[in-house]
Amino acid sequence: MSTLGSFIWSIADQLRGPYRPNQYGNVILPLTILRRLDCILEPDRETVRELAAKYDNPNRLRIEVKKATGRPFYNTSNYSFANLLADADGLADNLADYIDRFSPDVDVFQYFDFKKEILALRDVS
């Protein structure tokens, strides 16, 4: 079994308390997507934060981010996977902030109702 497969199963083992196996996707899929987006956005994170501080208008921000990064989506949060755990006690709130600050066209987390899952995981820990 691959290292990645082992890692994913270790996460599933931790979810066994509050989740049944058919519910694992409610957490694993959004987290996998979130991690992938985090990796894509990492090289231009500071540029996007600077642009977000400069432009209040979301339409203008989208245009400026596209010009600067070549990507049609962005995240303006001060959080990333690299620093989310710095405040372990505030992890649920910080993760929710991170998800909320994606550009409006990144709606996958609403589809999964992922913020509800974050709160559920916080409440069982």
Automatic annotation (TrEMBL):
<dbReference type="InterPro" id="IPR029063">
    <property type="entry name" value="SAM-dependent_MTases_sf"/>
</dbReference>
<dbReference type="Pfam" id="PF12161">
    <property type="entry name" value="HsdM_N"/>
</dbReference>
<dbReference type="InterPro" id="IPR022749">
    <property type="entry name" value="D12N6_MeTrfase_N"/>
</dbReference>
<protein>
    <submittedName>
        <fullName>HsdM N-terminal domain-containing protein</fullName>
    </submittedName>
</protein>
<dbReference type="GO" id="GO:0009307">
    <property type="term" value="P:DNA restriction-modification system"/>
</dbReference>
<dbReference type="InterPro" id="IPR038333">
    <property type="entry name" value="T1MK-like_N_sf"/>
</dbReference>
<keyword id="KW-0680">Restriction system</keyword>
<comment type="similarity">
    <text>Belongs to the N(4)/N(6)-methyltransferase family.</text>
</comment>
<feature type="domain" description="N6 adenine-specific DNA methyltransferase N-terminal">
    <location>
        <begin position="4"/>
        <end position="116"/>
    </location>
</feature>
